[in-house]
Amino acid sequence: MILSPGKRTLEKLILTCTFLFMTACPVVAADTAGNVCVQCHGTLPGRLGEPVAQWRGSIHAANGIFCNGCHGGDPNDSANAMSPARGFLGVPKENAIPAFCGRCHVGVLQSYQASAHATAQGKEKPHCVTCHSNHHVVKASLDLINEKSCGRCHSYDVARQIKEAMAGVETRIGMTEQRIATFKGKGTDTSRLEQRLFAGRNRFHSLAHVVDVNLITKNTAEINAELDAIDGALEDFSKLEGKKKIIGAAAIVIVLAAAALLAMYRRTYD
Amino acid sequence: MGVDDRRKFLAYCLGGIAAVAAAGIIYPLFRYLSPLSSQLESSKVTIPEGAVREGEANFFQYAGSAAVLVHHPGGALVALSAVCTHMGCIVQWQKDRQEFFCPCHGGRYTSDGAVISGPPPRPLPKLPFAVANGIITVG
Prior knowledge:
The complex is a heterodimer of chains A (about 270) and B (about 140). Chain A has about 270 residues and is mostly helical. Chain A is built from 13 helices and no strands. Chain A has helices at about 5-25, 25-35, 35-40, 50-55, 60, 65-70, 95-100, 105-115, 130, 145-150, 155-185, 190-210, 215-265. Helices cover about 25% and strands about 30% of the residues of chain B. In chain B, strand 2 (about 55-60) and strand 3 (about 65-70) form a beta hairpin. With about 140 residues, chain B is α+β, with helices and mostly antiparallel strands. The chains are: A mainly alpha (about 270), B alpha+beta (about 140). The interface between A and B is medium-sized, with 26 and 26 residues.
């Protein structure tokens, strides 16, 4: 079929837009399409399908951790997806949950095992899911420590003290994270600072699982020193940004001056 | 001022601007291509050879990041970045296993920095070092 020049232009425009859209699409959406766990369970009703919807809004989904990341199995083979031979673990028993999550969150597990939560006497010890939920795991924040949640098992007094001890550092971490995101949005390479902040936050949050106010207070100075170093690097970015603005303005002035001088030079030949 | 003088003056001015523009292009290129000798010199770290016993690891700060020097049981030394290549946490030394372990997501590395298991996508980067007169100089 021979297309008219106008239609050809339209065709090119559509192809270009499609290419740009596809390259800008989130990776998670593309990966989900090939994941048999999500494909099958996502269509099921009730308790077999709910985890998929909950997982979609989780930090695991945001970071590309799929069902097999925790439950094992083969997400590329529907016939053997839940085969123990392919590493399928299924749902852990209640008392096995800390070890189940702790395969990846090892630092948190170490801290938890030293905590009053893990060493509590009685049948029902609080574990990861008690506070973080199972499939809808969101980014950990101080909002997880609240009277309603902690009050299910004990008084809120100690939990309040822990929250207050963590609040200052947590606020600083949030502010630093925003500053890094601002620079990242402007095209600055912030990957190293993001890593340093992640490492610092992770260490601080892991320690919080010991649920010991003294330990948190003791480590506050250390994490603050790390945040100071990150803030220093961000200040350097600010200074560099200021310099770039001055250089940019100077370049514009020079170009305008050159254009004016060139026009005058040309006139000398008239 | 005659036309020739005027033309000459304007040519000088344009030449000056062209020189400034050329410098503005060449200087960043020169800075990018020239070695960072002063920066590297200031980031060098010296450790006495006897400070790291066989089978142990000594952590230190190098160029603003955590680094580690390992003394293998055979006597060989290796200097590595101690920053996990997964998400940037600081790895820990497990003496009994002679391995590095990341407390954030369980990444494991050999004492040479090679990935054993877990999410790290790359080995721990090796750092240059030299031993002279009982002093180990990293960097």
